[in-house]
Amino acid sequence: MKPQVKEALEWVYCIIIAVVLALLFRYFIGTPTMVQQISMEPTLIQNQRLWLNRWNRTTKTLPERGDIITFEAPSKKDLTEEDIEKNGPKAQYENEKSNIFWKFVHYVLEIGKDSYIKRVIALPGDHVEIKDGKVYINGTEFKEPYLQSGILTTGNKKGMTDFVVPENYVFAMGDNRNYSKDCRDFGCIPLEKIESKVAIRIWPLNLWGKVD
Fold first, then answer.
1. Is 39 noted as a catalytic residue in this protein?
2. Does the annotation mark 98 as catalytic?
């Protein structure tokens, strides 16, 4: 083999290894992202940069109430009353990838996959009530100091104002309640669809640090 060909192949191998390691780190450990919507204002503003911790997904750790998470967007954005009566308050994911190649493209390369960023409000087995502009968890008002003054929480449909979070699901909402498409619309999120937890804000620099 000619020295030039051997050197070229070595560079190709190095590049492939570097790409594979980067993808593994991104999928299992963490990755940066940018806020693209207004649903988490005032906590998170459009174009802010965040560092996402994906180790919780790798270790299958249940999030805590108040955690800000990202998850794969459901295929059905608005449940009907019939959906809720039939399947409970669960988000629907249709057209799941079965082919290994398309799973890799969708879940690892994240091509063609949409994600939402919301705050965990209730955990599996919690009784959620949305009434009088507030959220009650297991009969106790859930304190939300991160909401803007005067913001009221309303249920977007009857079946999502008084329910029990199914096992292996969480209920999440955006902090900007009046402008957030969230679990009140599409139902509770299965744990396996949670992608990451927001670890820190990395931009702008004057706001660098943990996000509460």
1. yes
2. no
